[in-house]
């Protein structure tokens, strides 16, 4: 049944915004897959070897051309493979074996409801505790991560291509559920994936592992490793404040949803907009839009502290070069685009109710600014 099933909504490759012709979308995906790995190496070389000077980096590559990229390309090493391999194995074990509540996700296009293991926060705390223990007992030097970050990048680039190919063949040969399909374009299938919920047995969700366990946990460990290598923890207090606001925004939203609006936010009964809408299957639904707490400051205010956090990570280097602020600029552009797309999608879904919400909560991300 599953092998001949088509997506019950527009195929993934054709959901790219903008309505561009298929050749344009194909070229865009190809460029992303081909150009991003060398771009990562360019950033690494500029930051590590040229003190973040884009001008010096430009002069270097202008003089040497593509050969310059080959000359500075960090080669995969056994040590880099060991660091990644041990971390991947450890996080996989935590995902599978840590005690967890059962969390049921939303209904999928094919009518399935994915089941998740809700043990991410416990896994995060265990990861931090074990990492601290290994450091304090001199069993592992976190500074090695910084010293070998170029080699780690190279291993990850190779692994990402290999992983995409494996998921592509798995999607064709052994899809995990009926939520799968092909866009009719090999590059599109490689880039977007064939399956909505790829799994290995019922206990290991590949998407959750790659996004939430490997990537997010590694992100935290990279920050800690680099901080250990460089004792200056500038903007530490501001960064903690941003982290807290992100956390509290999500807490308020979940509290509001789980209590159906019958709760207190910032000590008050929260204001809300009651709405109804029709799904793509013709079902009439009722819901609530929160307009209190952080969600009264801006419609997507939870994105503002994420931008602030990225800026906090860059500010300690001051303003000698622009490259250290690449991540902050990239995150800002990405999240502004995300807010715009969310507004457009929610307006199409809720119509006049979303317009009423926009009148009540005027700003998208940052009050008085945007």
TrEMBL record:
Pfam families: ERG4_ERG24. It comes from Sphagnum jensenii. Its EC number is 1.3.1.21. It is found in: Membrane. This is 7-dehydrocholesterol reductase. Belongs to the ERG4/ERG24 family. Its main location: membrane. It is a multi-pass membrane protein. Keywords: Cholesterol biosynthesis, Cholesterol metabolism, Lipid biosynthesis, Lipid metabolism, Membrane, NADP, Oxidoreductase, Steroid biosynthesis, Steroid metabolism, Sterol biosynthesis, Sterol metabolism, Transmembrane, Transmembrane helix.
